[in-house]
Amino acid sequence: PQNRAGPCHVSLLSPQVLAYNRHTFATVSQRLLISVTPAPGGDAPFQAEFLVGNRNVEELLPEAARELFLQASAGVWERGDLHVINVTSALDRGGRVPLPIEGRREGVYVQVGSHSPFSPCLASAVSPQSRSRCHRGQRPLASCYDTFAPHFSIRWCNLTLLQVWPSPTTPGPGWGPGVLEEGGDFEPPTEVVPRELLPAFLVTLLVPLAVAALLCLLLGHLMCCRREGV
């Protein structure tokens, strides 16, 4: 992709997207022009990743579907400043291709971010007690199962909560005026002692030649002096 940064910190990306039809296996390519602007309040420090089991990735790419998912997430998060960060197919995370029966779906990982802390429901869903229940095949400890129903089937045992804090930027080196201060003396680097490279050259050259000569003598002795009747 081509990245061009403007004066307002707006990046223009021009990726080429290659898609295929899963039924006819026909392919089509298209180049998109995407303008990327930083979020007004910066990156969301609180991020949650949900696994939606009854959807494919292309079903959550339209804006209407993502808005519906954000509305359901707002009921769980108990906040309204949510936005979708990433949408990834479960097949890209090691999921299996579903059988073409009963309208099964691949599953989608949806990452949602907010500047507000996690709700008690989300915190309880990832608690050690809840993870222990998941390992035993039981439902996790959460009181917000019905918030996403009936549109989205969330697999709460795969819920992941992240807290992303901006890393402190280290200041770069300070550039001086490039002029030697008055009264300072320039001290050139010390001279390097010359090295004697002849012994190393002779060892590198003569040792392989001596080994090759010995091998030739040994081979000639075996071929000429060890023949039958000699």
UniProtKB/TrEMBL annotation:
Transmembrane segments: 197-219
Keyword list, A-Z: Membrane, Transmembrane, Transmembrane helix
Residues of the Sarcoglycan alpha/epsilon second domain: 44-161
Top-level taxon in the UniProt lineage: Eukaryota
InterPro entries, per database record: Sarcoglycan_alpha/epsilon, Sarcoglycan_C
GO cellular component: sarcoglycan complex
Listed name of the protein: SGCA protein
Organism taxonomic ancestry: Eukaryota, Metazoa, Chordata, Craniata, Vertebrata
